[in-house]
Amino acid sequence: MSSTIEALAHDGWAAATVAAVAERAGVSRGAAQHHFPTRETLISAVLEQIFDEMTANASTTPADISDGVERVAAAVDRAVAIYTGTEFKAALQVWAAAASDPGLRELILPMEDKFARAAHQMTVAAIDPEGRYPQAHSIAQVTLDLARGLGLADTLSDDSKRRAQVVATWTELITAALNIDRA
Amino acid sequence: MSSTIEALAHDGWAAATVAAVAERAGVSRGAAQHHFPTRETLISAVLEQIFDEMTANASTTPADISDGVERVAAAVDRAVAIYTGTEFKAALQVWAAAASDPGLRELILPMEDKFARAAHQMTVAAIDPEGRYPQAHSIAQVTLDLARGLGLADTLSDDSKRRAQVVATWTELITAALNIDRA
């Protein structure tokens, strides 16, 4: 499955067929078709793994990061990490294909919804583990939309330098908005 | 050309061939090939128009918007408008195709660069026409990355309701950061 994610990210939508999966796995087309009787079942399995890995990138909040600016910075970094890996680049290929494929769109939307809720919950918890800031919910939302935009800017060329400045600006704005002191 | 943008956005990458353009325009394939001898020349022309229209969406700052919160809100709305039209959805198809096509990537990157600079300049001018806020440059950058993320969230389903909340949060954060009074 991870070779399919790699192939989607680097070779595009055409790489994610049952036949291509069989070839990469070195199994017969029949064997692959036993697991994935249709392309939809394949894409569905691939997307589930993509979303799992995207949230896995973001789900471990180091307990040793103390309160304050560092924790907010770590929370933002983690949100950005969701959208700057190979998984997001693979997801982008699925989304691009879904623009002209209503069936695929129907398949994706509930999965994406579930992912979005999980990512939001994790980002709120990372910014505000003790539930002290009511604004953390809307700030986490902006953080994830910004992270998605940064991920898209990173798909064709390495955008990490510019991104570091944007992340620094955003982290400053959040800490100011939450009145978090620089420890 | 605008029918090609429409077709890219709705039918995907496969719709942007010289043959498909000829068919939509009702001209012979030979006539279309006279204008666009290769697919690269076609894509290049389409992308140029896409970027022109994206900046056109953002380039007119109404002179009658007074200083203060309303002007910042209008600036943010305009940045978001760049990424929520058909042009962005068409651009997304080109970017997705470029992930597996180094030649296309080379073609896109300088055009995208030029577009990014223009969009940034316009957003800075919209937020801070009188050059009073040094932070306007970095805030404009975050605004555009956020707008790109919001655009991507709008490609598979209508995200306008959720987006309005994100835009409101962001506008509040900017006005607070710039110390702009609610007039």
Automatic annotation (TrEMBL), chains A, B:
<dbReference type="GO" id="GO:0000976">
    <property type="term" value="F:transcription cis-regulatory region binding"/>
</dbReference>
<dbReference type="InterPro" id="IPR009057">
    <property type="entry name" value="Homeodomain-like_sf"/>
</dbReference>
<keyword id="KW-0238">DNA-binding</keyword>
<feature type="domain" description="HTH tetR-type">
    <location>
        <begin position="1"/>
        <end position="54"/>
    </location>
</feature>
<dbReference type="InterPro" id="IPR050109">
    <property type="entry name" value="HTH-type_TetR-like_transc_reg"/>
</dbReference>
<dbReference type="GO" id="GO:0003700">
    <property type="term" value="F:DNA-binding transcription factor activity"/>
</dbReference>
<protein>
    <submittedName>
        <fullName>Putative TetR family transcriptional regulator</fullName>
    </submittedName>
</protein>
<feature type="DNA-binding region" description="H-T-H motif">
    <location>
        <begin position="17"/>
        <end position="36"/>
    </location>
</feature>
<dbReference type="Pfam" id="PF00440">
    <property type="entry name" value="TetR_N"/>
</dbReference>
<dbReference type="InterPro" id="IPR001647">
    <property type="entry name" value="HTH_TetR"/>
</dbReference>
